[in-house]
Amino acid sequence: MPSVLIVSDDEDFYPVLAEQLDKQLAFASRQVDSQTQAxxxxxxxxxxxxDQPLSPSDWPCPVILAEKPVRLYDLLxxxxxxxxxxSFPEIMDIGQGCQLHSRLKQLVHGPSGKMVxxxxxxxxxxxxxxxxxxxxxxxxxxxxxxxxxxSDVDTHTLETHIYRLRGKLKDACDSDGMIEAFDGGxxxxx
Length: 190
Fold this sequence. Notes:
Elements: E1 3-7, H1 13-25, E2 28-32, H2 35-41, E3 47-50, E4 63-65, H3 72-87, E5 91-95, E6 98-101, E7 106-109, E8 115-117, H4 120-132, E9 137-138, H5 139-147, H6 157-173, E10 179-182, E11 185-188
Parallel strand pairs: 1-2, 1-3, 3-4
Antiparallel strand pairs: 5-6, 6-7, 7-8, 9-11, 10-11
C-alpha cells in the first residue's frame, strides 16, 4: 500500500485528506508539522504533500504543494497519478512473449513485433491483474484500485474495460484467454 507523508500544521487539512486517501485510494498517510520533520520521516513514503511552501531541496520522492483553497478531488487525482506512475516498471512482462511498455502506453509482442496502444486505465488494470497473481483479483478490489469506486457502485465499467483489453491482448499477442474470469473476479493467465 502506498504511503503519503503530509506536511501540515492545519488541524482541518490533514484529517480530511488522510480520510480520503484511505477511503478513495487505499493509501496510508502520516502527518508532520514541518519540513524538518518531513526530512527525518520521509523514508518509505511514496509521495510528500504539503500545504506550506517547501524550500528547494533534493527530495527523494515527488512533492505536491497543495495550495489553498484545496480542491480535494483534484488533489486526490494528482496524488493517485504520481503514485501510480512511480509504482510501474517501465517494461513489464505479461506472458506469451508480450510486454507492457507503460511509458509508451503500448503492448508489444516481441516475436512478431506487433504493437497495440493501451490507455492509462488499461495499464492500471493490467498492473492490478498482474499483482493478483494466480489467485486473481476480485471485482470490488479492481473497481476500488483502478477507478476508486466503492463496492456498492452499480457499473459495467470493469467488464467493458476487460472486454476491450482482451481484444487488444489478442491483437498484440495473438492470444485468447490471457485474462480469465472466475467467480467474482479476474486473473492473468501466462
